[in-house]
Write a structure and sequence with these properties.
Elements: H1 2-33, H2 42-45, H3 60-70, H4 75-93, E1 110-112, E2 114-116, E3 120-129, E4 133-141, E5 147-153, E6 157-158, E7 161-166, E8 170-175, E9 178-183
Parallel strand pairs: 1-9
Antiparallel strand pairs: 2-3, 3-4, 4-5, 6-7, 7-8, 8-9
Length: 189
């Protein structure tokens, strides 16, 4: 008889615990699923009556840094640049005189994506590592009509420049005291 009373007490305890857990779960579940019936405006209730309050406030310097960091992802700016390039190529194709400012050959220094000589614009397109290392350079006349490809090995010269070093993504060109690192693409800053 005593075991029946103890078993019955355990059963009541289990039922009570299950009931409390069920009520708690139902209460928690109802807050997540059903929309509260309150008519209060949560934005006003929490003091966010204006959307501008939700935005972080940055100083002008911080904004400039963010704009600079993400400008390469700016679709509109890239589209405008592409349209300008297309318009320029149409003008060149039509034979119209284009006044493109060409940098002085003596003032170009450091890391460059394009090297301007007296007659053409040079762009590094590839550095090939085979039995002999060589650079493949696109040489485009300033008028944009003639394009040639140059194959240059270390030690070779062209238009007064000597190829002094070849690396995977750049070549070093020297002409007297002038040293230019012609890059295949712009480095990430």
């Amino acid at each position: 008889m005593l075991t029946k009373i103890v078993a019955h007490a355990h059963f009541k305890f289990i039922i009570a615990a299950f009931s409390v857990a069920s009520v708690g779960a139902a209460y928690d579940f109802s807050d997540r699923v059903w929309v509260p019936t309150s008519t209060s405006n949560a934005a006003v209730e929490y003091g966010f009556a204006n959307d501008a309050d939700l935005l972080p406030s940055y100083t002008e310097e911080e904004k400039a840094v963010l704009i600079e960091a993400f400008e390469k992802y700016d679709y509109r700016a890239r589209a405008k640049a592409e349209e300008a390039a297309k318009a320029l190529s149409k003008v060149v194709d039509q034979g119209t005189q284009v006044n493109v400012e060409i940098p002085d050959i003596d003032t170009q220094q450091g890391e460059l994506l394009s090297l301007y000589t007296k007659t053409s614009k040079l762009s590094l397109k590839a550095v090939i590592n085979e039995t002999t290392n060589f650079a493949l350079i696109k040489q485009q006349s300033h008028e944009g009509k003639n394009t040639k490809w140059l194959k240059l090995e270390q030690g070779q010269s062209f238009e007064g420049f000597t190829v002094s070093q070849l690396s995977h993504t750049s070549i070093k060109l020297t002409r007297g005291e002038q040293v230019i690192q012609l890059m295949m693409y712009k480095r990430n800053s």
